[in-house]
Design a protein that fits this description.
Strand order of the largest sheet: 3-4-5-6
CATH superfamily of the largest domain: Metal-dependent hydrolases
Oligomer: single chain
GO biological process, one term: pyrimidine nucleobase catabolic process
Family: Belongs to the metallo-dependent hydrolases superfamily. Hydantoinase/dihydropyrimidinase family.
GO molecular function: dihydropyrimidinase activity
InterPro entries: Metal_Hydrolase, Metallo-dep_Hydrolases_sf
CATH topology of the largest domain: TIM Barrel
Protein name: Amidohydrolase-related domain-containing protein
Helix content: 40-55%
Distance between the termini: 29 Å
Number of helices: 6
Amino acid sequence: EMEFMGTVTIDDFYSGHAAALAGGTTMHIDFVIPVNGNLTAGLESYKHKAEKAAMDYGFHMAITKWNDEVSREMEVMVKEHGINSFKFFMAYKGSLMVTDDLLLQGLQKCKSLGALAMVHAENGDAVAEGQQRMIDLGITGPEGHALSRPPVVIPLS
């Protein structure tokens, strides 16, 4: 039930878990997206969604903005909720993408907490430009995804 850039995933915890269990997967770790940058509100939202869970699950936490409150909430996530991994997106400009400064501050905070940092490493600006180019060319199907991310973009991240 993840909301993302004007869409919502088709599976909820139950239907996604049922499909995963049918394939032999018995554990799911989902990314919690903060609500307006608030980690605690995001976690509460995902806990509610997870009431439909059909297998063991856990959470990672996305970091989408930075301030003293987010820094404090990261510590609470680790110490009180057992969430010890945080994801930073260098992609999805205008949605989840973080600045280089935010990324560095977040990585330092992860280090101080002994938490795992994960990075979705794409050059968000270059990808956004590529996406616009595909739209301008009228390429709006699935093939546009790969075409908007040429291999040269990866070393830029």
